[in-house]
Design goal:
single chain; 136 residues; Thiol Ester Dehydrase, Chain A; seven-stranded antiparallel beta sheet; 24% helix
Length: 136
């Protein structure tokens, strides 16, 4: 499997700020989700496509390392790096403010059959093909 890397730009909105005038820690998870959705859109095989093919990918594990806080109006870049496709999707993330890394994270998502809820250990063929055919 080839490693794929994408970047997503996010401008910190006012409503993501906590009383200390920094991004509330839980909102970084939202930024990861936004970048992950953008990642799959760029692959041309998104969550809707997966679901229509009978597969969903809930988060099974998430690791977060906060390095520095972001503030209202900051322009962040979220880098997604596909590290593994089977038996689970593993994505590594780096969030940058300008050229400075302010967070690193990773997620693991398990494939689950939409109808039965059974765990699947192979990626859908369309997803495997989308990864193989991806061009930056």
């Amino acid at each position: 499997m080839k490693e794929i890397k994408t970047r997503t730009r996010i401008k910190v909105p006012f409503y993501d700020i906590d009383p200390m005038n920094i991004v509330w820690h839980g909102n970084y998870v939202k930024y990861l989700e936004e970048a992950r959705c953008d990642f799959f859109e760029k692959l041309r095989y998104n969550y809707t496509s997966m679901y229509n093919d009978g597969v969903m990918y809930p988060i099974a594990k998430m690791d977060l390392k906060y390095i520095k806080s972001a503030k209202f109006g900051d322009n962040l870049t979220v880098e997604c790096i596909l590290k593994q496709l089977e038996p689970a999707i593993v994505i590594k993330y780096n969030i940058y403010l300008d050229d400075e890394k302010i967070m690193s994270a990773s997620t693991m998502q398990m494939a689950v059959d939409v109808k039965t809820g059974t765990t699947l250990f192979e990626a859908p063929k369309k997803l495997t093909r989308a990864v193989e055919e991806y061009n930056e």
